[in-house]
Amino acid sequence: MLTTPQEYVDSLSSPGREWLQEFLAYMTQKYPDIAPVMFRQRPMFKVGKSYVMFTVAKEHFSLHTLNFDLIENIRGVLSKADFGKGCVKVRFSDTAAKPVLKELCDEVVRLNMLPDAPAVDVVPDLPYEVKLNTAFSGGKVKWLPLYETLRDRAKERLPQFTEYFPAVNVLWKHTSTFAQISAVSGAMRVEFYLNRLHTEINPVKTLQTSKNRVAHMVEARDETMFYELLDWIAQSYALTEK
Description:
Strand content: 25-35%
Order of helices and strands: HHEEEEHEEHHHEEEEEEH
Strand order of the largest sheet: 1-2-3-4-6-5
Structural class: alpha+beta
Number of helices: 7
Radius of gyration: 21 Å
Helix content: 25-40%
Shape: elongated
Number of strands: 12
Largest sheet: 6 strands, antiparallel
């Protein structure tokens, strides 16, 4: 788990690492009284009733803030960027956007450090891709494509379900959780429920959770077992739906 801004920086590859280093340095050098804190393993500068938070994805650098009006104000300036509510995403190739983003940081600080701007605890809702990259951060990132393939095939086969990101794993839920996916250095682990113990599927871990429900954990390193795995997940979906 990433507990400091530097650990987050070290977990990244270029050019995302350099982008983040530059913006962390900008904030800490210009505003030494505003120390970054970690929120969901990402560096965040809490500024009065708002914040400035930086995140890095495969192709984008993102800046997040509660000052939605400031984000709206730069839509016409950063024509190549993507925008969400309280978020602007800039491709690494768009280095001309850096001065605009730094000015945005300055405006957030200026507006929220006024005497009548009280400090509050803020809990930003991170974008989906940030939550996903957190679950598959560091050395586990190599399993992200395998997870995305499994997720897409499951969505084709199963009724609607939702992904939740409680920490560094992913929960699949309908009325309750029917699958849990996590990554370790050597494999992607998938946990699901079956109505009895199935040792023939070679689980790495099992747990009897009730009379007719046994949690099984298996490890996948490629798509070879996906046909059977999706069958087991579908049974878990049906079992937990009752």
